[in-house]
Structure formats: C-alpha cells, structure tokens
Amino acid sequence: MTELMLRFDSNKPRKLKYNLEKARRAGASTLLTFGGAYSNHIRAVAAAGRAEGFKTIGVIRGEPHETLNDSLAFAVSQGMHLLYVDRETYRTKKSHNMRRFLESCFGDFYLIPEGGSNPAAVKGCAELPGDIAEPFDVICCPVGTGGTLAGIAAGLAPGQRAIGFAALKGGFLTKEVAELQRQTYQKVFDNWHIEDDFHFGGYAKVPPELDAFAAKLGDEHGFEADRIYVAKMLYGITQMIEAGRFAASARIVAVITTG
Ligand SMILES: Cc1ncc(COP(=O)(O)O)c(C=O)c1O
Fold first, then answer.
1. What are the start-end ranges of the H helices in the chain?
2. Which end of the chain is more exposed for a tag (fewer CB within 10 A), N or C?
3. Is residue 146 in contact with ligand 1, taking CB distance under 6 Å?
C-alpha cells in the first residue's frame, strides 16, 4: 500500500542559510527583501536578521494599513523597517531602477529576492532530502516561488522523484524552477514536475472544500495545515493517491514547509 510520511521541515531556515553566509562574507550589515503583507518570508528574514545581527528592510506590496497585521507586526517587532510600494511599482522590483532607488534610500544592502528564492536558497534546500533518514521514492512540497522544489529535486538520490504542488495559478512555475536550477547548477534536472491542478483558484484562495479538508487533517493528525501552501499540497497528494497515480509500493514524503 502507498505509504505517506509527513516531514515537518520549514523551508525558511534552509533558504536563508547560505544567503546569510554570503551576506556576511560580503560585509553587508543590512538585508533587504520583498514580499506581500502576509508573507512568511518577510517574517523569516526579519527574525533571521535580528538573530544574526543584520538590519532588515522589507519592501511591502500595497498600501500601509493603520493597524499592522500579525505578519507585519511581527516583522516590526524584530526591528524590520517597512517600505510600502504600490502594486505597479512593486512589479518593477527586479529592475535596475528599483535597485538604484532603494540604494539611494538605504545605502548598501544584501538583496534577497521575493520568497527568498535564489541559487543560495536552492543550495540550502538541496540539503533537505539527505536529512531524511527513512527511505522514500517520491518527495512532495508546495511551490510558491520555486526555490524549495528546485533544491529538493537537485538533492535527490538516483531513482527518487520530486513533485511540487503549485500554490499559484497560471502554470508559470515550471519555468521558474527550471531557471533557478539553471542558475544554480547550469542544468535542469529531469526528476521533478509540478502539479498545477490543486491551487484552488490561485494564491491564498481558500474555498470551503479546502478549509474543511484542512480542518479534518487538523482533527485527525493534530496539526494546523496552513491553507496557502501545505493544505493544497496534501489535498493534491490525497487526490493523486485515490486516483492511483502512485505505484502501490510508493513511499511518499510530504514536506510540511511551515515547520
Ligand atoms: C509555508 C511555505 N511553504 C512553501 C512555500 C513555497 O516555497 P517556494 O517559494 O520556495 O516555492 C512558501 C513560500 O515561500 C511557504 O511560506
């Protein structure tokens, strides 16, 4: 019978590990990154900066709200300085002009992209499979910006496969993951793919069916699956098992990326 193992393993410290090392080696005292108002990544950078002695700046998509939501309140409590930019400007976050503008505001900084996905993050995530003691055939993770899947797949042993579950609609994430692998390893691995059918309408869309599924998981397994990433992946895996899409003998690991 198909075996499903849950692995609680936050992708955030893995994505930040080599970025922090690089920032330190470059002599940077400030980390700057981008994210939405509810970004887990913004929280993670704020906390890591505080713990590791970096100043942190979060460039936040959208207008400021009078009361900060929990994520942003946490980031500020860790000493992060927030800069809000409107959505149109935010879309230019990778541009040279944006970088120049940010440097004129804040001086030098080590830039971590939105979601933390860059080659340093990919290398950190590539260490995840090797830390799993139990033998497995397939490893599953949610996909937001792609760094986690790009790394996990690169860290697999021959014969193992990775499946990413897109948390966003649009079908563009395969390209993003491939590009991250190319930037990191100068090649694209062929041991992974992305399932695009379980995003439930797009990023942060949580219809009642998904909410009910996650609530049942919580009751049965005693953990709160986050609805944006983890619940969508687990729903997808469950559907695929029911549809017979895994070999009967498959040992599957699902990475619960919220830790
Ligand atoms: C809990 C959680 N799981 C998965 C992901 C997706 O990871 P990635 O952006 O590397 O695809 C994120 C976002 O970074 C996340 O916060």
1. 11-25, 40-52, 70-77, 87-90, 96-106, 119-125, 147-154, 173-185, 208-221, 230-242
2. N
3. yes
Q: What's the CATH number for 29-108?
A: 3.40.50.1100
Atom of ligand 1 nearest to the CA of 40: 16
**What is the model's pTM?**
0.96
User: Would you say domain 3-11+118-256 falls under CATH 3.40.50.1100?
Assistant: yes
| Whole-number Å distance between alpha carbons of 244 and 241 | 5
CB of 121 closer than 6 angstroms to any ligand 1 atom: no
Stretches where the chain sits below pLDDT 70 are 259
Query: Ligand 1: distance of its center to the CA of 146 in Å?
Result: 8
Whether 29-108 and 3-11+118-256 are alike in CATH topology: the answer is yes
Which ligand 1 atom is the nearest neighbour of the CA of 143? Answer: 11
